[in-house]
Amino acid sequence: MDPAAVLGKHPRPDTVQEDDDARRRSIIMDRARLAEFLRSRRETLQPEDVGLPRGGRRRTAGLRREEIAVLSDMSVDYYSRLEQRRGPHPSEQMLASLAHGLRLSLEERDHLFRLAGYATPRRTVRSDHVNPGMMRVFDGLEDAAAQVVNHVGETLKQTRLSKALLGDETVRTGPARSAHYRWFTDPGARSLYPEDDHATHSRIIAADLHATYTRDPEDPRLSAIVDALLAESAEFAALWQEYPVNRLYCPVKRIRHPELGLLELHCQTLIDPDQSQMLVVYTAPSGSESHDKMRLLSVIGEQRL
Fold first, then answer.
1. Is there a single domain that holds both residue 138 and residue 98?
2. Which of 57, 81, 115 is the last residue of a domain?
3. What domain range is 100 assigned to?
4. Is residue 219 part of a domain?
């Protein structure tokens, strides 16, 4: 907390100026690499990529400097000087405009900010809708037991076979939308798994939440779930204090289906580049008893025998 706020006083203007000057001196911009990065990204963009007509013959690869300046809402002179390594130190607002004009990915935007000497901006996670790329993969798994899960453990989409295996997890509301929250607060959430596996599942889920929280501790939805679990689950609170870390592979999951009994399934995962969503696919080795049960489950669906 600012000491001036504690004392109920405002800092003196000259102190503010000194702080601003110190901040400017602490920012180190790699002017040469910034110029090269801007030029390289400009040359990879084509007029069609940004909705511009191609027009006549172009003497340079990609877009012209004046086109990027217009797309980034800045003067041509300002942008040109940045590419020529003689421009001013751009503000964070200017960098955000450049990232938009150059159609940078989140990773490229973060790199742009680092080259200019700034911390990378906080990423805004949109986790209520399946990302387009993830959706295209999901659509090709119609006959598999697959589901898309967001960063707080909420199931956004399930195939028919996934619902038959695990139940419809998309109908939940409130904190119970999160399978992570349900695991530690609803005894019924553990009924699908053998009791011998409960401790392992608890550690995996706590580690997953811990890793996600470490990446983005300011995410309000994630913080709400962690705070609720710390208050409601002594088991979770104890695991959280251990700073749990997940292994790099997904172990075989044993699921106890109410009609077909125990299934041993491999869990394959595809993580979206921004780490906001994960595609989970449950499979069984061909010829195994679990494989035969999955084939039967695909026929009976969610009906009870």
1. no
2. 115
3. 3-115
4. yes
- Number of Cβ within 10 Å of residue 76's Cβ equals 14
Angle between helices 31-44 and 106-115 (to 10 degrees): 150
Are both 138 and 111 inside the same structural domain?
Answer: no
The structural domain count of the chain equals 2
Identify whether residues 288 and 141 lie together within a single domain: yes
Whole-model pTM?
Answer: 0.63
Please spell the DSSP secondary structure of 102-139, one letter per residue.
TT--HHHHHHHHHHTT-PPPPPPP--SS--HHHHHHHH
Domain membership of residue 274 (yes or no) is: yes
Among 35, 42, 33, residue whose Cα is nearest residue 69: 42
- Per-residue pLDDT of the chain (305 residues), as tens digits, is 332 332 333 333 333 343 444 344 346 889 999 999 999 999 988 888 888 877 767 777 789 999 999 999 999 999 999 999 988 899 999 999 999 899 887 778 889 999 999 988 776 555 577 877 888 899 999 899 999 999 899 999 999 999 999 999 999 999 999 999 999 999 999 999 999 999 999 999 999 999 888 877 888 889 999 999 999 999 999 999 988 887 655 678 999 999 999 999 999 999 887 678 899 999 999 999 999 999 999 998 877 65
Q: Is 168 contained in some domain? A: yes
